[in-house]
Design goal:
heterodimer, A: alpha/beta, FAD/NAD(P)-binding domain, D-Amino Acid Oxidase, Chain A, domain 2, 8-stranded mixed sheet, 6-stranded mixed sheet, about 30% helix, globular, B: mainly alpha, 4 helices, 3 strands, binds flavin-adenine dinucleotide, binds FE2/S2 (inorganic) cluster
Chain lengths: ~375, ~90
């Protein structure tokens, strides 16, 4: 492996690969991406890959809105030889309690102020969009047609191939074991295949971003949390949008392949690195899914898996340079929605690192918001 | 052997030709191949095709089949209805 680089990116998920591409396309040479296993082996390859603009904080809504435009043109922009399978069937966010509905109304006001075309629907109107929706007790729903989902493996593959053409090197099956710094600046990255001297490190390690920062002597306020998902046998297309219920902690979509992918958040999940799949999850998700979408009870489950959310205290990411280790940037804390915001998050970070004008203020994602107690609390997470 | 017509993963309809082409592009584990073209993601969960792909990888990498990294095995081993898990049946 090479001994020196201009930039070392740690983590071969969507964030690491997208940042590599955005730096390379802006003319940065000699970039290396270090990945412990294979590309998209982390959260990215385990995620629902849903893309929604219906957020309650402006920051998430802007990043998602602008990333949707990128996903729309991604096959062409990255000259991808396959298809990222971006399908804009919309997101239907259903509400079964009055409290939740009041919050949805506030979220929609934020979305409208940013030009996101979300509609507020009555239960009847929601059923016209998803005929098998249970409207018993439904207060209302919000719908945005341009939301959707993509194939996460192919999106990463597209960034990987485009970045490789621009000269970026990818070292897979290589782990970062240490970060060296001198006089408050990073100087090199230690890996299982040798050291690389570099003045610039980007920590895009998702759930392991905290571990990497500890290597540089800095603690991040992030914690890992297991989330499980399952996929069913494929059937004829019958559900356009992703259906999401914060009350039932459920999200459920039909992929272009015909299978249904779904998951639930578990409020009792401990903060640790466990990624085993559990039996309790199968029962929990089956109950929630067949309550909201009763028709699904006849579908057979073919596979379940789990992955880790990299949770931050306010469910917004951290995009900042570590004060104690200049040259070391963090892009983590995506709290279960890093896939959908990745394209524009990568642009924002590349602009900031290169001293270019940022398309939105990056300071809002700074580390000192936690110290000052000025959190960007996101109300709309599963 | 007719690699264009030889099906390796019958659930997902993937030929030996496609598997070989991915290996030659640098994809080196069953997990990577699975994620790009769905080989092993069908109803049988790779019980039929996993070893066939492992053999191809072993040949190219010059290692015994036993040393090819295997994907994780998880429940359910056989497809089960959601309604059954929900306790409805
Ligand atoms: C079940 C589930 C469902 C989800 N659904 C959605 C969704 O619908 N929409 C959405 O937008 N987001 C979703 N997410 C969240 C999304 O997956 C993540 O926010 C996103 O993939 C983060 O990307 P990343 O590149 O930061 O992290 P990752 O993909 O986790 O990448 C980090 C990489 O770092 C590597 N690494 C770790 N330690 C080291 C080391 N020491 N040395 C070298 N490499 C290392 C890992 O192997 C990994 O590949 C979901 C997540 C889960 C778990
Ligand atoms: S034969 Fe490949 S998944 Fe069944």
């Amino acid at each position: 492996m090479q001994k020196q680089a201009n930039v070392v990116i740690i983590g071969g998920g969507i964030i690491g690969c997208a940042v590599a591409y955005e730096l390379a396309i802006r003319g940065v040479k000699d970039i290396v991406v270090i990945e412990k296993q294979y590309l998209s082996s982390g959260a990215t390859g385990r995620c629902g890959a849903g893309v929604r603009q219906q957020w309650g904080t402006e920051t998430n809504a802007i990043l998602a809105r602008d990333s949707v435009r990128r996903f729309e043109g991604m096959n062409e922009e990255l000259e991808y030889d396959r298809d990222i399978e971006f399908k804009q069937g919309g997101y239907l966010m259903v509400s079964y309690t009055q409290n939740e509905w009041n919050q949805y109304k506030k979220n929609v006001a934020v979305q409208h102020s940013l030009g996101i075309p979300t509609k507020m629907l009555t239960p009847q109107e929601a059923m016209e969009i998803v005929p098998h929706l249970n409207i018993n007790g439904l207060v209302g729903a919000t719908f945005c047609q341009t939301d959707g989902h993509a194939n996460p493996f192919h999106v990463v593959d597209a960034y990987f191939k485009a970045a490789s053409r621009l000269g970026v090197k990818f070292e897979t099956y290589t782990s970062v074991t240490g970060i060296k710094r001198e006089k408050g600046k990073v100087t090199s990255v230690q890996t299982t295949k040798g050291d690389i001297d570099t003045p610039l490190v980007i920590n895009a390690c998702g759930y392991a971003a905290g571990t990497i920062c500890e290597m540089a002597g800095f603690e991040l306020p992030l914690y890992p949390q297991r989330h499980q998902a399952l996929v069913t046998e494929p059937v004829e297309p019958c559900q356009g949008p992703m259906v999401i219920s914060l009350h039932y902690r459920l999200y459920c979509q039909q992929t272009p392949h015909g299978s249904f992918i779904m998951g639930v958040g578990d409020p009792h999940e401990p903060k640790d690195f466990n990624i085993n799949s559990s039996w309790e999850f199968l029962e929990d998700v089956a109950r929630q899914a067949t309550t909201v979408l009763p028709l699904l009870k006849n579908l057979r489950v073919v596979r379940q898996w789990s992955g880790l959310y990299d949770m931050s205290p306010d469910a917004n990411p951290i995009l900042d340079e570590i004060p104690e280790a200049k040259g070391m940037w963090v892009a983590a804390g995506f709290s279960g929605h890093g896939f959908m915001v990745a394209p524009q998050t990568a642009v924002l970070l590349a602009q900031k690192i290169l001293g270019q004008e940022c398309f939105m203020p990056i300071e809002r994602f700074g580390l000192d918001r936690f110290r000052r107690g000025e959190l960007l609390l996101e109300p709309a997470v599963v | 052997m007719q690699t264009k017509e030889t099906i390796v993963c019958r659930c997902e309809d993937i030929t030996l030709d496609e598997i070989k082409s991915l290996i030659s592009q640098g994809y080196r584990t069953i997990d990577e191949i699975k994620r790009v073209i769905r080989a092993g993601m069908g109803p049988c969960q790779g019980r039929t095709c996993r070893m066939l792909i492992a053999q191809e990888l072993a040949k190219v990498c010059g290692i015994p089949v036993g040393e090819v990294l295997m994907p994780t095995f998880r429940a359910p081993v056989k497809p089960v209805k959601l309604g059954t898990f929900a306790g409805g049946e």
